[in-house]
Amino acid sequence: MKKLISALSALMLMTSPLSAYADTAITDSSAEKKGETQITMEVAPAYTVVIPADIKIEEGATNTYFGDYYLEKGVLEPGYYVNVAIDGYFEMEHSLDDSEILPYDIVSSDSLVVENGENGYFSYKDYSVNIRRIDNHMPMYILIDEADWENSAAGSYSDTVTFYITYQQPKDQSN
Fold first, then answer.
1. Is the N or the C terminus of the chain less surrounded, counting Cβ atoms within 10 Å?
2. What's phi and psi for 127, nearest 5 deg?
3. What is the spatial distance between Cα 20 and Cα 29, in angstroms, rounded to a whole number?
4. Which uninterrupted H or E stretch holds 92?
5. pLDDT tens, the chain, 175 aa long
6. Looking at the domain 46-173, which fold is it?
7. Considering only CA atoms, which of 143, 50, 158, 145 is closest in space to residue 100?
8. Which strand (E) or helix (H) includes residue 133?
């Protein structure tokens, strides 16, 4: 009897219609069956911005190449950008007497900055720059007036500038 029940159970399983289960049940009795599944994904924004390394300025130099900053890698949303701003006192202090200073400016001359209404050099004291393209190098230079060199005391001077890097959405899409 057990063999007969097992055989009937196996036969019933083999002849029953197979069903596919999903979140959306397909119940239409027409000849053509159709079901849809939506596939979604999200890619998080990510970027790498390269900034210049430490630099030593030669005595008397009035225009020193500081280096480039650029977007090395980036996955940005359409229209979004990476903003780079530089902050500092723009005055190198003497290592023994902080009242002795050597003022300087950091400037660039990239054509993308025309949106600021400037041609030629622009100063980082007044501007920040938006980067949208990978490997769009922004060359920077340190300018020191000749008169400031002539009036400086002997010794070592230093200063630190800070690069602020932010991911920003276009102004017309902000909440």
1. C
2. -130, 155
3. 15
4. strand 91-94
5. 555 455 555 545 555 554 555 566 666 666 677 788 999 999 999 999 999 999 999 999 999 999 988 888 888 888 888 888 888 889 999 999 999 999 998 887 654 333 444 444 455 666 667 777 777 788 888 999 999 999 999 999 999 999 888 888 877 655 4
6. Immunoglobulin-like (2.60.40)
7. 158
8. none
Domain coordinates in residue numbering, the chain: 46-173
Give the number of other CB atoms < 10 A from CB of residue 158. Answer: 11
Q: Which amino acid makes up residue 87? A: D
Look up tokens 């979004």; give the residue: 80
Tell me the C-alpha distance between 107 and 124, whole Å: 6
pTM: 0.67
Q: Is 15 exposed, middle or buried (0-12, 13-18, 19+ CB in 10 A)?
A: exposed
Q: Whole-angstrom Cα distance, residue 81 to residue 71?
A: 10
